[in-house]
Specification:
- The chain contains 25 helices and 24 strands.
- By secondary structure, it is α+β, with helices and mostly antiparallel strands.
- The protein folds into 6 domains: 62 residues, Helix hairpin bin (Helix Hairpins); 232 residues, D-amino Acid Aminotransferase, Chain A, domain 1, CATH 3.30.470.30; 93 residues, OB fold (Dihydrolipoamide Acetyltransferase, E2P), CATH 2.40.50; 73 residues, 5' to 3' exonuclease, C-terminal subdomain (DNA polymerase, domain 1), CATH 1.10.150.20; 79 residues, 5' to 3' exonuclease, C-terminal subdomain (DNA polymerase, domain 1); 77 residues, Rossmann fold (3-Layer(aba) Sandwich), CATH 3.40.50.
- The strands form 7 sheets. It has a 5-stranded mixed beta sheet.
- Helix 1 packs antiparallel against helix 2, helix 12 packs across helix 13 and helix 17 crosses helix 18.
- Bound molecules: 2-(butylsulfanyl)adenosine.
């Protein structure tokens, strides 16, 4: 036998052994060998693969972490839609769900499987001939994003499964769905590291999971301990009889399945399951936000079908938001970019639902008065989903007799000017438009992702640059380049980061008109309104001259918005500021189509696959800017289907329906680019 044949055998044996130990360690948490012994096996395999690189296959345990950056996360069309679940919050709602199931099944007997609802990010994994080939996010349920390289780093995701453990219909191809998550402890450690490095901590384990799955560098992904629980097995012609059997196949094939699932014969047992886990959720090392109740029989699931985006055979039972009590040390008033003062509770730090909480929102003075919240009180705080924690009640027994009701501030805590409380509002405002807090808020908004998208100009840098008098208004941003040397001398800002910032600022001048309009932060002019105004008026000059009637003739623009615009443009300071921005080179005009052919008014576009020259979102913006429509699915009414790389089933559908298909080049020509 030749060397390479021997090596092949040896390599296959080693991989097999490593796969088994991966399974024992990461899926079952019952390792049989020491870490050292494991490392030796891996080293041996790496050595052999180095010698025989032609034998490296993507499913080798050495290939979990790629070294190439993932430049984009191309769209992936799901073979079967990834549905979401209807939420229920009370026993009564579960009773109603059960009644609908009973009615739908015309009196047939049925059972449920109750599972934990893992609070993570749902993913779809595709295997061909037992080898992991693709992972994608849920996206909008029909089209998700490909995140294969990142999911590959998750050690509990098998890169290869033994086909003999699966029914033959799945040998060619199957799909597994599950939830990627991060354990609470791992999340805490990650946040500690981030804070040390001056990075913004994640709000909760789910956000850190979602953020990690979208990182471009798989090596960083690999360093973050992501994990997965799978709950679904799919394949064409694969007919399994129950969800329980589904879970058992997953287990048999070596996937990680959450062990706390239970077959429930009736609703009473479902209640028991929910009550138990609502009570004991804190004992789990990962976060759950409820239970998922599924009709066990797949035939019955089919019979019940789905409505809109969620199945009728399954429901989520959401646990009550986690609560705890802590001391309210102070109430501070934060000033936003519009001058609105928002009360914020400063709390004695307390651990709740995956993170340490030291601040909570109090909404407004009316809320404080209604709940009679006082400084020094012991308060109940809760965290529901991903929202900012809030103070829900006061523990009155623990109140000190000296405490006094909170009074609204009379002066702005930042600039000291007298505040204003409009007669018909609960809100309190700082009316000094020069207030540093307002200046900072406006600048942060201006530079933000959906506005001018100036990378690097975030909260902390804006804070610094305003405090050091570099920035006061938007035009100052564009003259920063004249102060390069001074900027470099600022502590913590090196030459490289200053140059990156200046480049990002220059680049932002090319942002289309609607973004520049949104960036100004005119009251009630959100991103959507800005786009409509930009499309209708075409330039800042025309918009500034528009009368109230003209403004209101635009679809969805009512009195509230038109008045706000008129007031804004009436202010001489705003007009001067806009002039300066124009002089700096901002685009205050929509890009005119070059020829009449380029006018896309009324034309509808579907995009499938990825484009080289722009992201999906940019393509969408460009189509809309030119008066066209961007739609998600192909029909007879579609005018153009733009086909990029790796197109999905929309391409096939377009061919079937005979819709006009164009490639990227033709699309660019249509756009006039
Ligand atoms: S079943 C139609 N089972 O909850 C079936 N989902 O809206 C839908 N989730 O998107 C999924 N744990 O991300 C199912 N044991 C579990 C789950 C689970 C968490 C997530 C999943 C889904 C969302 C429901």
């Amino acid at each position: 036998m030749q060397d390479v044949d021997l090596a092949r055998k040896e390599i296959e044996k080693l991989r097999e052994e490593i796969r088994r130990h991966d399974y024992l360690y990461y899926v079952k948490a019952e390792p049989e060998i020491s870490d050292y012994e494991y490392d030796m096996l891996l080293k041996k395999l790496e050595g052999l693969e180095r010698k025989f690189p032609q034998l490296i296959t993507p499913d080798s345990p050495t290939q979990r972490v790629g070294s190439d950056l993932t430049k984009e996360f191309p769209p992936v069309e799901h073979k079967q839609p990834m549905l979401s679940l209807a939420n229920t919050y009370s026993r009564q709602e579960l009773i109603d769900f059960d009644r609908r199931v009973k009615e739908g099944l015309n009196g047939e007997p049925y059972e449920y499987v109750a599972e934990l609802k893992i609070d993570g990010v749902s993913v779809s994994l595709i295997y061909r001939q037992g080898v992991f080939v693709q992972a994608s996010t849920r996206g909008d349920g029909k089209v998700g994003e490909e995140i294969t390289n990142n999911v590959k780093t998750i050690k509990s995701v098998p890169l290869k499964v033994k086909l003999e453990n699966l029914p033959s219909e799945l040998h060619e191809e199957f799909e597994v769905r599950g939830e990627v998550f991060m354990e609470i402890e791992a999340f805490r450690k990650l946040n500690e590291q981030r804070e040390k490095a001056g990075e913004k901590p994640f709000a909760n384990p789910r956000n850190s999971t979602a953020g990690t799955l979208k990182l471009q560098d798989p090596r960083i992904v690999a360093s973050r301990p992501l994990d997965i629980f799978t709950y679904y097995l799919l394949g064409s012609n694969y007919f399994v009889s129950t969800q329980l059997e589904n879970l058992n196949y997953l287990i048999k094939a070596g996937f990680k399945v959450n062990p706390h699932f239970k077959l429930c014969k009736n609703l009473r047992e479902v209640f028991e399951f929910c009550d138990y886990w609502e009570e004991h959720r804190e004992e789990l090392p990962y976060e759950i936000d409820g239970a998922v109740i599924k009709v066990n029989s797949i035939a019955q699931q089919k019979k019940l079908g789905a409505v809109a985006k969620s199945p009728r055979w399954a429901v989520a039972f959401k646990f009550k938001a986690e609560q705890t009590t802590t001391k309210l040390n102070n109430i501070i008033w934060q000033v936003g970019r519009t001058g609105a003062l928002t009360p914020v509770a400063v709390l004695e730090p307390v651990f709740l639902a995956g993170s340490t909480i030291s601040r909570a929102t109090l909404h407004n003075i009316e809320e404080i008065e209604r709940k009679d919240i006082r400084i020094g009180d012991t308060v109940v705080i809760e965290k529901g989903g991903d929202v900012i924690p809030k103070v829900t009640a006061v523990v009155e027994e623990k109140r000190s007799p000296e405490s006094k009701p909170v009074k609204p501030p009379e002066y702005c805590p930042v600039c000291g000017s007298k505040v204003f409380n409009p007669a018909d509002e609960v809100g309190i405002y700082c009316v000094n438009s020069e207030c540093p807090a307002q200046i900072k808020g406006r600048l942060i908004h201006f530079a933000s992702r959906n506005a001018m998208d100036i990378e690097g100009l975030g909260e902390s840098l804006v804070d610094q640059l305003v405090d050091l008098n570099f920035l006061k208004s938007f035009p100052d941003i564009y003259s920063l380049k004249e102060k390069r040397a001074e900027l470099i001398s600022i502590e913590r800002l090196g030459e490289k980061s200053v140059d990156n910032l200046l480049t990002a600022i220059e680049k932002s001048k090319n942002q289309p008109f609607h973004r520049a309009l949104f960036a100004l932060g005119i009251r009630f002019v959100g991103a959507g309104v800005a786009l409509k105004l930009a499309n209708h008026f075409g330039s800042m000059d025309k918009l500034m001259k528009a009368s109230k009637e003209e403004l209101e003739s635009v679809a969805d623009i009512g009195e509230r918005i038109s008045e706000s615009l008129i007031n804004y443009f009436r202010d001489e300071r705003n007009r001067q500021m806009i002039e300066k921005l124009k002089a700096a080179g901002l685009r205050f005009e929509t890009q005119k189509p070059l020829t009449s052919l380029n006018n896309l008014t009324g034309k509808s576009f579907v995009l499938t696959g990825s484009l080289n020259s722009m992201s999906r979102n940019e393509a969408k913006e460009k189509i809309i800017e030119r008066g066209g429509k961007f739609v998600s699915s192909v029909s007879f009414k579609t005018d153009y289907v733009v086909v990029g790389e790796n197109p999905g089933s929309k391409f096939d559908k377009a061919k079937k329906l005979g819709v006009k298909i164009i490639n990227e080049q033709e699309f660019l020509e249509l756009l006039g680019e």
